[in-house]
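Q: Got one fold?
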Amino acid sequence: MIVEYTRYKIDDERRATFEKAYKKAVESLAASSHCLAYEFSRCTEDPDHYVLRIEWDSEEGHLKGFRSSPESARSSPASSLT
């Protein structure tokens, strides 16, 4: 198992769009056989900061299995902010 952390800083203007996109993104994680668990959280002390923690079955499962899957194509909330 490996653990991946992704940190985001999202300003007020983009926060609602970002959170909506992440609701869809976590559906892709939940559907993946390579994702063992995930946690998406927002910092209470600094609300511009978010952290996504993902437990993958293996590095290969993450980099080759998930990233080449149909679920991966639907899982990037950052693309909705550009």
Notes: The chain has a mean pLDDT of 87.
